[in-house]
Write a structure and sequence with these properties.
repeat, YhbY-like_sf, five-stranded mixed beta sheet, mRNA splicing, disordered C terminus, single chain, 650 residues, alpha/beta, 13 strands, coiled coil, CRM-domain containing factor CFM3, chloroplastic/mitochondrial, four-stranded mixed beta sheet
């Protein structure tokens, strides 16, 4: 025991001394180790398996042979199919290596294609660059013992398989998918789900032997029977209170779930898309989602037409569709086979019962005596009995004088109600204008306008004429919109004055008095000199001169003016106030007019009843127009906000 402990301590001390010596070595003394590292890095990771199994001289010889090869096999969008595997084996009978060039989707993931190629053919990839691959048949390819062993394995697999046509190919596919899934650790629940799905697909039909995805291998829909006897579109019934269509969140959830679900069918021929309908219904009975993969490399495939035909035949909801997959949801109105059969039987029995009741009703109608209805005779128009019955039911009719009096009373009441309605509208409008005034005062609290300075710089007539002519011919200008004057306007004026002496401001949709007031305010806030106010094709042009003793201020934006947002709020409140004032003016005019008409109606005589009624109808139409205007006024905020989007102010 002591000897073993001493030897272990000696080994550890030697390792520590070696590590210390390595750290103390100079770079040229560590040349051998660096060469070894370079050799390790230079090893091709794409063909690591071939480098481990094949001796290096033999590997170099095979790579040189492949480089001199001119002929190469092109692999299209279908990928590694059984036909390609057979062609590779035929080529291996004459040559050791086969050169392949992949195109289409297979070239996007060459690592996966590399694994599939080695698993399906049994060869080794000795060189790979880009989408080109050199496949070696192996050193023991022509040995008789290997051939006999492979035949023995295939015979055992064929005896144990359920489908005779699947026995050799399904073994290869399962080996491939087992190797692909070896890196992925599945939980027990996921393994159980995959095994159940595999059993379900095994019952539906033969598998797609050229499948290059993960397990389970989907059913080849092109090999299913073209006509299924007794097939009908599934019976569907939407439960009470359930939506027929899916919500956006539900559709998003189903699409994300479908990404992880393996496909159930592989479909290539467009005219054979109806063959998977029977199996489609069986899959929907077990799973809420049915996924169909579209075969690659098959000509004349249209996923749009396939999806439309399957939707008509199965009645499901299309979740997603692209060049690779078609995903269907069974729908909210889907019923399991057991429930649908019970409902169909109940519906059939209900229809039979209704037919029996209708036949019994018809038989009873023929037995009724037609003379039984003669005892209750209807009243004849124009007879005394009919007159007495009508009088007792509806009473006496009013005469013409009473009718005229009733019409006049109704007209007066209608006029009085219109007056009351206008008074209520006027009170509401006045309360609104009071709120608008308060809101405007709240916005204007942040504004403190400057007054005109007493020592204004004066311009001679010649200077004013020259500045006006230069200003009108200037191309750059500032556009003053509905916000009018705010801190950004003064800032832009100072930025213009930084490079030129004049600034031209265009004002649209304003009267001359309003433009003049704006020009004076600009002169006071900016500290410049107003040159002129002219009317142009674009609007009114205000030209302001910066002054002979102009100096750029430290802060371009004055603190005493409103911001851009506050200026927009001020514009909205001003527009609301003006509209309410106009509305109140119209209401007051209509109210005075109706009051005068009401006084005339009260003092009118009985002969003017018809004229009075016509005048009332005209007043009612005016009141209706006022109601329409009131509706427009109530929605004024909406129209004001719409107008802000078309604002072209600075």
């Amino acid at each position: 025991m002591e000897d073993s402990s001493t030897t272990s301590l000696d080994i550890r001390s030697e390792k520590c001394s070696n590590d210390a010596n390595d750290l103390m070595r100079l770079p040229w003394e560590r040349k051998i180790d660096e060469e070894f590292v370079k050799e390790e890095k230079s090893r091709n990771r794409n063909t690591e398996l071939a480098e481990r199994l094949i001796p290096e001289p033999e590997l170099k010889r095979l790579r040189n042979v492949s480089l001199r090869m001119v002929e190469r096999m092109k692999v299209g969008a279908a990928g590694v199919t059984q036909a390609l595997v057979d062609a590779i084996h035929e080529k291996w009978k004459d040559e050791e290596v086969v050169k392949l060039k992949f195109e289409g989707p297979s070239s996007k993931n060459m690592r996966r294609t590399h694994e599939i190629l080695e698993s399906r053919t049994g060869g080794l990839v000795i060189w790979r660059s880009g989408s080109s691959v050199v496949l070696y048949r192996g050193m023991t390819y022509k040995l008789d013992c290997v051939k006999s062993y492979s035949k023995h394995v295939q015979g055992d697999a064929g005896a144990s398989g359920s489908y005779q046509e699947d026995s050799p190919e399904s073994i290869k596919v399962k080996r491939l998918n087992g190797a692909a899934e070896s890196s992925r650790v599945l939980s027990e629940k996921e393994q159980m789900d995959l095994s159940e799905l595999d059993l379900l697909l095994h019952e539906l039909g033969p598998r797609f032997i050229d499948w290059s995805g993960r397990e389970p291998v989907p059913v080849d829909a092109d090999l299913l029977p073209a006509v299924v006897p007794g097939f009908k579109t599934p019976f569907r019934l939407l439960p009470y209170g359930t939506r027929q269509a899916l919500r956006d969140k539900e559709m998003t959830y189903l699409r994300r779930t479908a990404r992880l679900v393996p496909p159930h069918f592989a479909l290539g021929m467009l005219e054979r898309s109806a063959r998977s309908c029977d199996g489609h219904g069986k899959v929907m009975g077990k799973s809420a989602i049915a996924k169909i993969a579209i075969k690659r490399g098959v000509p004349n495939t249209s996923n749009e037409r396939m999806a439309e035909e399957l939707k008509i035949l199965t009645g499901g909801t299309l979740v997603s569709r692209n060049k690779e997959f078609i995903v269907f949801y069974r729908g909210n109105d889907f019923l399991p086979p057991g429930v649908s059969s019970i409902l169909i039987e109940a519906e059939r029995s209900t229809a039979l019962q209704q037919d029996e009741e209708e036949q019994a009703r018809q038989r009873a109608a023929t037995l009724i005596d037609p003379k039984a209805k003669a005892s209750k005779r209807p009243l004849v128009a124009g007879t005394l009995a009919e007159t007495i019955a009508a009088t007792s039911r509806w009473g006496t009719q009013p005469n013409s004088a009473e009718m005229e009096k009733m019409m006049r009373d109704a007209a007066v009441a209608r006029h009085a109600s219109m007056v009351d309605s206008l008074q209520r509208k006027l009170a509401i409008a006045k309360s609104k204008i009071g709120k608008a005034e308060k809101a405007l005062q709240k916005v204007l609290q942040n504004q403190e306008p400057e007054s005109l300075p007493t020592d204004l710089e004066t311009l001679t007539d010649e200077e004013r004429f020259l500045f006006r002519r230069i200003g009108l011919s200037m191309k750059p200008y500032l556009l003053l919109g509905r916000r009018e004057i705010f801190d950004g306007t003064i800032e832009n004026m100072h930025l213009h004055w930084k490079y030129r002496e004049l600034v031209k401001i265009i004002v649209e949709r304003k009267t001359f008095s309003q433009v003049k007031h704006i020009a004076v305010s600009l002169e006071a806030e900016s500290g410049g000199v107003l040159v002129s106010v002219d009317k142009t094709t674009k609007g009114y042009a205000i030209i302001v001169y910066r002054g002979k003793n102009y100096r750029s201020p430290l802060a371009f934006r004055p603190r005493n003016l409103l911001t851009k947002r506050q200026a927009l709020a001020r514009s909205i409140e001003l527009q609301r106030r003006e509209a309410l004032k106009h509305h109140i003016m119209e209401l007051e005019e209509n109210l005075e007019k109706l009051k005068q008409e009401l006084e005339e109606m009260v003092t009118a005589n009985n002969n003017g009843g018809e004229a009075l009624a016509s005048r009332t109808d005209a007043a009612a139409s005016d009141c209706n127009d006022d109601e329409d205007e009131e509706t427009v006024r109530d929605n004024l905020d909406f129209y004001v906000l719409i107008g802000t989007h078309s604002d072209s102010s600075c």
